[in-house]
Specification:
Length: about 350
């Protein structure tokens, strides 16, 4: 989302009634979808991997629902500091959480690999009060004030945030490792997109995608446990809707634990564990693809094509005939937050 628009939203949204903020989000989503800009086109390209058999009309309907889900997240995040504890509790529903509560209660940390699904900020705030001390990572943004605005929302919700800037990955990972080893900690990490040199390639919907190695690396020694957590939207009705003060809630679904293969060591074990959580995340995305807020490149084929375009442009514009050129490697998108 445009930085200037977000800055204005952080300034004005808390002063407005939540129903009006939700309505403005729907309007913004509809306008963005109709304009069919770069973000919407990228969303549709990603969704074709999730639902390859969709007709053009079906894809457009799905991307429309996706844009509404995407903007709903921002609307909810902007008003979250003004919500009561009772409202947040009514909006969040957990699935398959018993094993995680048992492990946390026994002093073991739980690391959750998240996708850009639903409203992870609301789920994280709920977890920090009801599940366990919650630590996660947020990428430093420009302008800095925008990063501070996001940080303020997340810290007010009770989460501990580790800021990740360029060249800080090793430092952040070491602090995450220290946190995990303290025991009884919940560490959710957005991990479904990682374009750094350390990104792990996995199979996602039958295509190669690059995801973050952090969740598996933190748990490969078995001292903390790894799972996938899928956060998706659900309609609220009756008493729960009245308590929530919203027509929408989030379902926070824990997968069963990822079990390390003891016959594998080092990078092979991390890769195998990463593929396991990615498979579970793919299943959740396939069930509710409209809630996968992936408006950026994640599949390796798309990354390679983009790099080829950069190379061709440089060759045409600057290289003498017959010269060897390496081309630009950057893709212009920010890295994911899973370290």
């Amino acid at each position: 989302m445009n930085a200037w628009i977000l800055a204005q939203a952080f300034r004005w949204a808390p002063r407005l009634p939540e129903p009006l903020v939700r309505a403005l989000a729907v309007l913004g989503a509809d306008v963005a979808w109709l304009v069919h800009g770069k973000g919407v086109r990228r969303l549709e390209a990603n969704l074709t991997r999730v639902r390859p058999g969709l007709s053009r009309r079906g894809l457009r309907r799905l991307s429309h629902a996706g844009m509404r889900s995407y903007l709903r997240y921002y609307a909810e995040m902007l008003v979250q500091p003004g919500l009561s504890v009772e409202q947040v509790d009514a909006r969040v529903r957990l699935v398959n959480e018993d094993w995680a509560l048992e492990r946390l209660g026994a002093g073991q940390s739980v690391v959750a690999a998240l996708g850009h699904l639903g409203n992870w900020d609301m789920a994280g705030g709920w977890a920090s009060r009801n599940l366990a001390p919650t630590t996660t990572v947020a990428e430093r943004l420009e302008p800095e004030q925008l990063f501070l605005d996001f940080l303020d929302v997340r810290e007010k919700a009770g989460m501990r945030i580790l800021a990740l800037g360029r060249g800080e990955g090793g430092q952040v990972f070491r602090e995450l490792m220290r946190t995990a080893r303290r025991g009884g900690q919940f560490i959710p990490l957005l991990a479904d997109r990682d374009l750094s040199h350390s990104g792990v390639e996995v199979d996602l919907f039958g295509h190669r995608a690059r995801v973050a190695p952090g969740p598996a690396a933190l748990t490969a020694d078995g001292k903390a446990v790894l799972c996938t957590v899928a956060i998706t939207y659900e309609r609220l009705h009756g008493e729960r809707r009245r308590l929530a003060g919203s027509p929408w809630g989030v379902k926070v679904a824990f997968s069963d634990p990822v079990v390390p293969d003891e016959t594998l060591k080092g990078r092979e074990r991390i890769h195998a564990m990463t593929q396991q959580w990615a498979d579970r995340l793919a299943q959740a995305i396939a069930e509710t693809p409209q809630d996968w807020h992936m408006l950026q490149r994640v599949f390796v084929d798309d990354l390679d094509r983009d790099r080829d375009r950069h190379r061709n442009a440089q060759t045409t514009q600057a290289a003498p005939a017959g010269a060897d050129t390496d081309g630009a490697e950057g893709d212009g998108d920010s890295a994911a937050e899973g370290t």
